[in-house]
Amino acid sequence: MKREEYIQEIKRLKKERDAIILAHYYTDNDLQEIADYVGDSYYLSKVAREAKEQVIVFCGVKFMGESAKILNPHKTVLLPDDVADCPMAHMVTPQQIKQVRQEHEDLAVVCYINSTAQIKAESDVCVTSANALNIVKTLKQSKIFFVPDQHLGTYVASKVPEKEFIFNDGYCHIHRSIQKEAVLREKALRPEAQVLVHPECPSEIVDLADYVGSTTGIIDYVAKSQADSFIVCTEIGILYELKKNNPNKNFYFVGEKKECADMKRITLSKLYEALRDMKYEVVLEEAERKAAEEALLAMHR
Ligand code: 13P
Ligand code: SF4
Q1: What is its EC number (predicted)?
Q2: Which of 27, 105, 169, 282 has the most other CB atoms within 10 Å of its CB?
Q3: Whose CA is closest to atom 1 on ligand 1?
């Protein structure tokens, strides 16, 4: 089928199935264009939680589909690709969490939404890059075990010095591959450009930032900024929304193309097949879902 035919068929099937399509900013342009809602991880989990439609098709990686199912369990949640998964979501184990809980009192386990349902079930509260700072600040516990992302954890810790942090060693390979020298080179070429950094980047990149925030945070910052040039330190998919909203502004990405292979597994044809064949359904064991729901609801409160 041609692109236009896929689009037509997706629209037809969406109505027939009573479905809503959600897409993350890191997915392909075509998916961002056809989705009913596009956003960062926090916004999309909120939309999924409140969705009235019978079917939620999540164009994103596995933890996003799982979070939708955890928060809205009576809906059918579909992932167009059954392999698309965030490697960082698996970089901590329930055993590690249990061990740290045993060793420390007055401890909150804070888990980044980029984590498996099993990890959420072991945690006290979930956070995203959009709300991690505010949520951690309001926790009553004095110690924080931040999983799985060491970089987001380090960023939050730098802003909440009153708490003691225990870190895990997880990371996003896309954000970790952004090199300080490459940002400095780009900055030397365009001294007027503002540096925008996702907090999954290592601290040496965060230290160079004019703005640090989630994908939505970066998009909102650009919309309000007087500047017309930006060095963007995150995944390339965000460029679609940035260009759409700011056709006259200039965006520069550093180093080799920063492309999340897992996000890019999702295509228009797979979205079509997901709606046609009602696949791949997210299924969770109920006890685990319930425990994970508590951590996600603590974030949405
Ligand atoms: P946000 O869109 O929430 O900033 O998340 C970035 C990310 O890496 C999602 O996988
Ligand atoms: Fe995971 Fe990084 Fe891809 Fe986001 S960009 S899904 S954190 S690997």
Answers
A1: 2.5.1.72
A2: 27
A3: 40
